[in-house]
């Protein structure tokens, strides 16, 4: 069974660092209208194969366009030494040329089409509940959850959580009124899309039902949701997978029922940290099952008995886990279940993991392989000692 994380990667840009030997292409593309003088002196310069860990990238948070600011910050560490002290605009032009060279035109066209689709919706769609589109913590979250976040400590977080298996946390999170309003907003949007004869963008390639919340105006609120209420928890419990450097998200709802998706196959998420909150409604079945955390190299490896766990959804309750924690959803037997998913991502982590061969800090199979190597090393050391002792004279 292939576990290749089939969800569409809407926000991630995979940046190729040269052609295998760290050499940038001799003639990167230069968009029309860009001054040649800005990049011409650097056309034959080499990108660093390994990032310059000591270099502090400039701030690109004000840069708008096809790439997230964190992409430029990550790529700047790979610039040739002669460019590191150049003006920010020069570096920005150089990096844009590199990115344009390695991001296929088809992908750029796809992103542009989605951007136009979203802009058209934002221009025409009238929200049902305007109060959803701005963050109102006391109206959205339960007091116990808010207090834990305000305290911002491992002790306060654990006081509201259960951890049935390592790395999976469950806790009461959302107010019933927020869940109800969000359900009504999604239903209103879906009816509007149908009436307008739009083709709705589904959350990913596995779900045939549901909607992307960012597409109809909730992106800014949900970004605050991630930064202020998910990131503090992730910083404590998932630092090894970028939990402290979350900088983008993909937010959507999924729908399971008789006339909706019935189940979800075994997979991993395109995220570093996933928040999954049940919004309702009445249902039975549809449990979430977990089968161990794996890196790309071990995603198809066997599941150990201690890694097996089934989670039963409760409206308003969240389950938090690593995106690489293999999981699926069992078939729903009755009713309708709708869940809010927030895939939280870290550009920094994605860049850094390109230079690692194994991940024993979080991948279950990498951990077992490391323990096996350590055990073999101890055995070899003992054998060498015994052989030496056997030949010694007293």
From TrEMBL:
Entry keyword set: Dioxygenase, Iron, Metal-binding, Oxidoreductase, Vitamin C
Domain Fe2OG dioxygenase: 247-346
PANTHER family associated with the record: 2-OXOGLUTARATE AND IRON-DEPENDENT OXYGENASE DOMAIN-CONTAINING PROTEIN 2
One function term, GO molecular function aspect: L-ascorbic acid binding
Top-level taxonomic group: Eukaryota
Cofactor(s) listed: L-ascorbate
A Pfam family it matches: OGFOD2-like
InterPro entries hit by this protein: Oxoglu/Fe-dep_dioxygenase_dom (IPR005123), Pro_4_hyd_alph (IPR006620)
Name this polypeptide is given: Fe2OG dioxygenase domain-containing protein
């Amino acid at each position: 069974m292939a576990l290749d994380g089939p969800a569409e990667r809407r926000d991630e840009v995979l940046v190729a660092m040269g052609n295998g030997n760290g050499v940038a292409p001799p003639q990167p593309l230069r968009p029309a209208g860009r001054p040649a003088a800005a990049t011409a002196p650097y056309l034959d310069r080499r990108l660093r194969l390994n990032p310059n860990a000591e270099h502090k990238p400039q701030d690109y948070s004000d840069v708008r366009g096809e790439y997230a600011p964190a992409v430029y910050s990550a790529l700047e560490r790979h610039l040739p030494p002669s460019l590191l002290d150049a003006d920010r605009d020069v570096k920005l032009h150089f990096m844009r040329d590199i990115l344009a060279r390695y991001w296929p035109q088809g992908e750029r066209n796809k992103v542009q089409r989605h951007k136009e689709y979203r802009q058209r919706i934002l221009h025409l769609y009238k929200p049902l509940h305007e109060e959803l589109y701005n963050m109102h913590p006391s109206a959205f979250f339960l007091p116990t959850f808010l207090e834990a976040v305000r305290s911002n400590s491992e002790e306060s977080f654990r006081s509201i959580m259960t951890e049935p298996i390592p790395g999976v946390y469950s806790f009461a999170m959302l107010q019933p009124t927020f869940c109800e309003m969000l359900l009504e907003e999604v239903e209103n949007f879906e009816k509007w899309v149908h009436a307008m004869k739009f083709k709705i963008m589904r959350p990913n390639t596995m779900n045939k039902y549901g909607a992307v919340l960012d597409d109809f105006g909730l992106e800014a609120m949900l970004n605050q949701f991630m930064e202020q209420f998910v990131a503090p928890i992730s910083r404590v419990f998932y630092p090894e997978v970028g939990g402290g450097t979350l900088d983008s998200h993909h937010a959507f709802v999924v729908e399971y029922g008789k006339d909706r998706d019935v189940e979800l196959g075994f997979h991993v998420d395109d995220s570093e940290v996933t928040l999954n909150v049940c919004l309702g409604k009445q249902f039975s079945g549809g449990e979430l099952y977990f089968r161990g955390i794996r890196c790309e190299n071990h995603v198809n490896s066997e599941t150990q008995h201690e890694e097996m766990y089934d989670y039963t959804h409760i409206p308003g309750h969240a389950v938090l886990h690593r995106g690489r924690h293999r999981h699926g959803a069992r078939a729903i037997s009755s009713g309708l279940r709708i869940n809010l998913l927030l895939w939280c991502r870290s550009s920094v982590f994605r860049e850094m993991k390109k230079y690692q061969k194994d991940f024993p800090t979080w991948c279950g199979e990498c951990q077992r392989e490391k323990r096996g190597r350590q055990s073999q090393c101890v055995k070899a050391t003992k054998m060498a000692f015994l052989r030496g002792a056997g030949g010694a004279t007293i």
